[in-house]
Write a structure and sequence with these properties.
The termini are far apart. A six-stranded mixed beta sheet has the order 5-13-9-6-8-7, covered by helices on one side. Strands 1, 4, 10, 11 and 12 form a five-stranded mixed beta sheet that branches. It has a two-stranded antiparallel ribbon with strand order 2-3. The chain is of the alpha+beta class and 316 residues long. Helix content is 19%, strand content 24%. It is built from five helices and 13 strands.
Length: 316
């Protein structure tokens, strides 16, 4: 005697209530910036410089003042951002998601699954990394028009030193590939030597670029038998050095698909905010009026390059 089960639906186990988030990349650029807190709307950042002229000594009674001390400023303007969400927890009762809920019909904000809030913050970090570079107050995209990003600031300044020219690369390129990546990154190094030789040993230098550029450079180095990497921590999404330099390559999704890379000294990049890490703070509450759990994130954010003329850019 056999079984007849054709009238039954195939079994699907829905008792596993663990929820998996999609693949996300983490915000990166902000960790390389100087954080300027306490900005409600805009703030002048002072730049101080001075010239030195050596004179012949060995005499008395002669005082010749020389050199000039210059004080200038750059305005760092922050955008004011808000993210709001709401959830009706009883909507989880009809499905297997009911297994995540406590007994009873009275819910509070504590009953919202933690994975939802984790995903909310992760998605925000993802959007901010792109806006930090591509943000443009004139954009029609609501995720990009709250403040100007670094790429937008540099395009508007128009004073960065271009490395994709004959003086540094020979024949300018129209894309970055495994066949020309070593020449591209060497051009960035040569441009730095030409513009600001002193900065090579005066603090960290970061070359921010599309992760695809970083991958092309790694593959090109491998193909050239330059095994300078150790097999860990050297992927297209992690930092590593341009071979033979102190320049750290920082692949960022903010420049993904953007035909531009930027070499910026650590003292030249500023992130403005009112309260540090405020974008990670979520106000969560249960609203008795509509019986929904609600969240709100409020923060301010903006960028500035203090000396755009001291930025090496590689564009095409």
């Amino acid at each position: 005697m056999g079984f007849t089960v054709s009238s039954l639906s195939n079994y699907t186990n829905e008792q596993n209530i663990k929820m998996y988030m999609p693949s996300l990349f983490k915000g990166k650029t902000a960790q390389y910036a100087n954080i300027q807190t306490g900005i409600k709307s805009a703030e002048k950042i002072k730049l101080l410089d001075t010239t030195i002229w050596m004179q012949t000594g060995g005499t008395c009674a002669t005082f010749n003042s020389s050199g000039t001390t210059t004080i200038s400023d750059r305005t760092l303007t922050v955008g004011k951002l808000k993210i709001e969400n709401s959830w009706c927890i009883p909507e989880l009762e009809a499905k297997s998601t009911q297994l995540m809920l406590k007994k009873g019909s009275n819910y509070t904000e504590a009953d919202l699954p933690k994975e939802i809030l984790d995903l909310l913050v992760a998605r925000l970090m993802e959007k901010l990394e792109v806006a930090d570079w591509q943000g443009d107050l004139l954009s029609g995209n609501p995720n990009l028009n709250k403040y100007d990003g670094i790429h937008t600031i540099m395009v508007a300044a128009g004073t960065g030193l271009e490395a994709n020219v004959a003086a540094y690369i020979g024949t300018p390129v129209t894309s970055v590939t495994t066949s020309n990546a070593i020449s591209v990154f060497d051009a960035v190094r040569l441009a730095q030597v030409a513009l600001l030789p002193g900065t090579r040993n005066a603090g960290a230098n970061y070359f921010f670029c599309d992760p695809a550029w970083a991958e092309a450079y790694l593959v090109a180095a491998k193909n050239a038998n330059n095994f300078f990497y150790n097999g860990t921590g050297n992927t297209q999404d992690e930092t590593f050095k341009i071979l033979g330099t102190n320049i750290t390559i920082v692949p960022t999704q903010g420049l993904s698909g953007i035909d531009a890379g930027y070499l910026i000294h650590e003292d030249n990049l500023f992130l403005g905010t009112d309260l540090e890490n405020e974008e990670e703070k979520i106000k969560l509450w249960y609203d008795d009026e509509d019986e929904k759990v609600k969240s709100r994130i409020l923060f301010k954010r903006g960028w500035q390059i203090l000396r755009p003329a001291e930025v090496i850019e590689f564009t095409y």
